[in-house]
Amino acid sequence: MPEEAKLRYDLRGLKCPLPVLKTRKRMENMTAGALIEIETTDPLAVVDIPHFCNEDGHRLEKAEPVSGGHRFLIRKKT
């Protein structure tokens, strides 16, 4: 089964609240059910990104540590 297409968004180097604000803005024009993968070095993102998903109705598909930060896979609400 081929991997589902996803938009990759590099937010490394940005501090709170910019990763959430930029992710929200980028997701505005995405179609419902689309995937976005973000990578951030902000240590607060492990709290902020799940909270953002919960508040806006998106589904956090995956959260994992990566070298120097974290990677999140988010599915836009349908």
TrEMBL record:
Location of the UPF0033 domain: 9-76
Organism: Sinorhizobium medicae
SUPFAM superfamilies xrefs: SirA-like
Family statement: Belongs to the sulfur carrier protein TusA family.
PANTHER family on file: SULFUR CARRIER PROTEIN YEDF-RELATED
Protein name: Response regulator SirA
